[in-house]
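Q: Could you fold this chain for me?
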Amino acid sequence: MEPRRTTADVSAGTLDVFVWEPDRCAVDAGDARTVLALHGFPESAWEWEKVAEILAGQGVRVVAPMQRGYSPAARPVGVHNYAIEHLAADALDVADGQGLDRVHVLGHDWGASVAWWLAAYHPDRVASLTAISVPHLAAFSAAIESDPDQQARSAYFGLLRQEGKAEDVLLDGDAHRLRAMFDGQVPASLVARHLNVLGERSALTAALNWYRAMRRYDLPDVTVPTTFLWGGQDPAIARSGAEATAARVTGDYRFVDRDDLGHWLPEQDPAWVAREVFARVI
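A: Sure. Below is the predicted structure, expressed as structure tokens.
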């Protein structure tokens, strides 16, 4: 199933947007049946392809933007342009462009960070949240500060935040280090699609600027219905932050951990991810 291609105007320019239309209600699924899917690093909106195809088969529309920096026409220069406030505003602009007052938000990795921000600061726009891999940002920040295990897992941030050097290292040898991040857990054809975006140095710099603009996030508790999915073999996210997330959600909360999976959950088990998202949509 090929997604419909469209665009969304944001403050930084124009985002490319993929829309997987549902088999039923093919013209307009409406607010109640639409998922806004936010991709992570070093990926692209294509990470949602299998999940979106399953959801579309169940009558759910999936809207997945190529986020700021990943879309060529929304790639501003300067780290300050990649603060999470701008990333979240882009997501709301995408929803506005689709005529959505409220939407079910799905995010993985950096997309999950943006999704947590939306749920915390714009609960009136978020019907439900499904966050994958990255915990509630306050819980994650606390883990980075106090948990030696998480500190070790986050050590790679140091490289990614080095302007110029990170790009050199990751793109060297036909982007060998960038490809290695997927640890053989993402199909080579999908990795190639991601690298069609990030293999260009300006795109990679923009994506790395998300890391360079990051800071400690003292995020409020989340009140919307929330599901958090985490893989016990995730090399980047320790259990401490994952388990501490429960205390940061006051709305209906479901934590599902899979000890057999790692970081790339939408690609490793798209049927499972789709089931968990669908449980929030119905």
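A (continued): The chain has a mean pLDDT of 96.
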